[in-house]
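Blinded run. Sample ID left blank on purpose so nobody reads anything into the name before looking at the predicted structure. Input follows.
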Amino acid sequence: MNFGLVMALFGVAIAASAGIGSALGVAIAGKAGTGVLSEKPELFGKVLVLQALPGTQGIYGFLVAVLILVKIGLLGGSAESLTATQGFAFLAVGIPIGVVGIFSGIYQGKIAASSIIMTSKDPSLSTRGMTMTALVETYAILALLVSILMWNSIAV
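Blinded prediction complete.
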């Protein structure tokens, strides 16, 4: 295994680390959700949607990780020898979605938790809570876009 390939695999790992933000965000929202559902089980559908929203960062990170693996030939082909420059380029591809995914997942979970509590007080406000929670998502989507644009610019 050459140095460039090792660096590219670090990029895969960093991109996939966006799942940490999702796991924490979903857990934060889940804590609020279980408290609400113990008193108002009829709100399960609304609470579930709000709890699930922070899970998307992990999906975005997984997507970028798979894109890198495909481009370097580890999925569906044989891994090619990468130069150090190419390896560092793939490492850089994983950073935007990995880092932003961690933080946006956590903060989206906090907003989702607040929205779940708001929904418990007035169920008609759940869509407003979803909108507020989705605003944090914007930055994860922008990071995903940056990672994809970077990935697209690397020639192998």
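Unblinding after everyone has recorded impressions. The radius of gyration is 18 Å.
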